[in-house]
Amino acid sequence: MTTPVPTPGPEHAEPAPAAPVSVAEAPAVPVAEVDDPITEPSPLPLSEPLSAEGAALIDTGRAVDAVEVLRQAVATGEPSATDLLVRAYLDSGAWQPLVDWLVPMVEQGELRFAGRLGVALAAIGDHERAEAAFRMAVSDGQVSASNDLAILLRDQNRMGEVVQVLTWAAQQGDSQAGANLVQLYLESGDTLAAIEAAEAYADETRPDTIVSLADVRAVQGRHDEAEAYYRRACELGGLRAHTAYGQFLLSARGDAVGAEAEFREAQRHSEPNWASTLGHFLVEAGRREEARWYLQHAADSGDADAMGTLIELDGGDPTDD
Fold first, then answer.
1. What is the end-to-end Cα distance of the chain in Å, rounded?
2. For 208-259, what is the HEC assignment?
3. According to the UniProt entry, which residue ranges have a biased composition of type Low complexity (predicted)?
């Protein structure tokens, strides 16, 4: 592992924030024998018109509209349709339909969908079956599913197992596990463990570990060093780099203008939760009407916090049934 020397980045950094990243948000590329089974849609042949239409809808943020088109594509036997429909369900937060569809497929041996089934089961609160699905995926060689398993275990306060799972995944070469371990330590208040992990796993070939190193330097109050790492992570294309840098600029520097610029870069790079982040930022800035589109986009993807904020903007109580 090589830890970069903090050097000032360009005035306008390229792509990253904090919080463990799940496979649903951003599938990591495992180095095990089995590759991550569901990938970004590639150009489809003319023989798959419905799949091509569905892929285009997903890519333009219309996953809800893509579902019915892709259901038809599956029914007509288009080869690319199954993977695309899984993406559409995930992107639209249609958890129960996804569970209903994937359970029989996984039971029939389609283990490449086990990790996604775990994500959907966790989202509907079926934690026992979600854990079983994640472990099935990991056993099948999908190392990246360890990140989702770790988040599930974290939510059940099983931190000893979380550390074991993420440490193992990082040793297997997973690109997110080391960074997620740092974030989980920070969330639990174990700053010393977070610092130790961040320094151990920092590696420029895994840009999100550089974001995590920036995060711990920010917690230590070493802001100039933290900013240099955030900028470097943006240059390297860290998955959540612009988001993290924007949050740092807002909280540590009081730079709302700079933070907004980074949040909009996060949108441009499709970072996890970009719509929710930007929407809530705009609400806090008093730009409530401008925030609505972003919050609605996040809510349509299953973000409960964004939906609650929308209800509050309309004068409602998000705790009401």
1. 50
2. HHHHHHHHHHHHCCCHHHHHHHHHHHHHHCCCCHHHHHHHHHHHHHCCHHHH
3. 15-24
Q: Can you say whether the dihedral through the CA atoms of 168, 170, 174, 180 is positive or negative?
A: positive
Taken in order 248, 252, 253, 255, the sign of the CA dihedral is: positive
- Torsion angles phi and psi, residue 63, rounded to 5: -60, -35
Say how far apart CA 170 and CA 111 lie, in whole Å. 22
What gap in Å lies between CA 167 and CA 154, rounded to an integer? Answer: 14
Closest CA to 189 of 221, 159, 150, 210: 159
Q: How buried is residue 313: exposed, middle or buried, by Cβ count under 10 Å (0-12/13-18/19+)? A: middle
Q: What is the pLDDT of residues 270-282, one digit of tens each?
A: 899 999 999 999 9
Q: For residues 249 and 271, is the Cβ–Cβ distance under 8 A?
A: no
Q: How far apart (Å, rounded) are the C-alpha atoms in residues 95 and 216?
A: 34
User: CA nearest 106: which of 80, 77, 79, 82?
Assistant: 82
> Tens digit of pLDDT for each residue in 260-305?
999 999 999 989 999 999 999 999 999 999 999 999 989 987 788 9
**Angle in degrees, CA 186, 26, 293, rounded to 5:** 95
